[in-house]
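Ticket opened by: R.M.
Priority: normal
Category: complex prediction / small molecule

The reporter submitted a protein together with flavin-adenine dinucleotide and asked that the result be attached to this ticket for the collaborator who will pick it up next week. Submitted input follows.
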Amino acid sequence: VDHVVVVGAGLAGVRTVEALRGRGFGGRITLVGRERHRPYDRPPLTKSVLLGESDTTFVDTDLAALRVAFRPGVSATALRPGAVETTEGELRFDGLVIATGADPVRLPGDGPQHVLRTLDDAHELRAALVPGARVVVVGAGWVGAEVATAARRAGCVVTVVEAGPAPLALAVGAEIGARTARWYDGIDLRLGAMVHSVEEGGVELVGGEFLDAHVVVAGIGVRPAVQWLADADLDLHNGVVVDEHLRASLPGTVAVGDCAAWWSRRFQDRLRVEHWDTALNAPEVAAASLLGEDAVYDPVPYFWSEQFGHMVQYAGHHPAGERLLYRGGPEGKWSAVWLRGDDTLAAVFAVDRPRDLVQGRRIIGAGSRLDAERLVDPEVPLRDC
Ligand code: FAD
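Result attached by the on-call engineer:
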């Protein structure tokens, strides 16, 4: 391999560049990124940046020392055999890393709406969160909950509109989600409500009700940013389909981060997670695979969120039908675990109980069985169950 082109200059892209150099790759590397910023972390955008505690979140990396030709503000538009078409001409490659992440879904309607994916998005939204502003956040998922936290803290009048029966219902199910609804104190939380359209001055709900708003934020999820690959000879299905080595269906091509749907040996399932931890760690495997080494990516996926003063963490993968057990009541600190039929742990969801998360993640990794009766006692450490 002489020339590696990395498309997408987010965390997964830059970490892959670091991993290639770390493994001794001495050839040329070009890093193409649609945004004008150098690589930065996204999790703080809805946390410290929106709360006004920090302005930038750049990844601590030295692009010059990595000898990478960084092309900010350049988008890939198509993939042809051996070459990426970009907004600034063609780039020939003999190794390709697809790390284009995901793009936020927007609501229908012509009225102004914010999304929150980029540093620029975060700065624009922060400027709009002024005391007394009427803010409608659409979607009570991870991003919606964090935006609502910041908006309430800023003194805004906040409404959250959620189509599902509870916050976080899509991610962790309505039962757990319902336990988090109590956190929306002082917020008008509308469950089972659908937005018809965003209009000038607010949002119209299905059924006709109009919610006045100075600020509308869409937090309704993302789609893998793979439109530029639509005509390429590459398997796409909920992102770029890759094997357990993160190799795509095209030779000399790997995909990594939010845009990649990989085969998990551990869970015998195809996973595509939108987690910072994956963007951080999967690049080691992607780089090794691109250089012809035998490496497998098979983590216990991990995610966290900071909302309404709570540290919320999730590890594992829980297909529907696993048994759900709680450690602790809904007030205070608690966690939930998903047990399989053979009493092994599939996933853990922890609220202000970081030990449950750390121990649970280890137990999932080891595949050991747990005693369901001991498990429901929050005083018994998970590792002793
Ligand atoms: P991205 O970070 O999306 O980077 C991809 C880059 O590729 C982007 O800069 C994009 O502009 C660029 N790109 C896209 N298409 C093209 C193209 N055609 N040509 C060139 N460049 C292109 N995860 C957690 O685990 N915990 C959290 O608390 C958490 N909070 C989050 C809060 C926010 C607001 C957001 C947006 C995400 C959060 N995440 C969190 C998720 C985490 O940030 C992502 O999983 C991570 O950013 C994925 O990294 P990536 O490099 O795969 O994709």
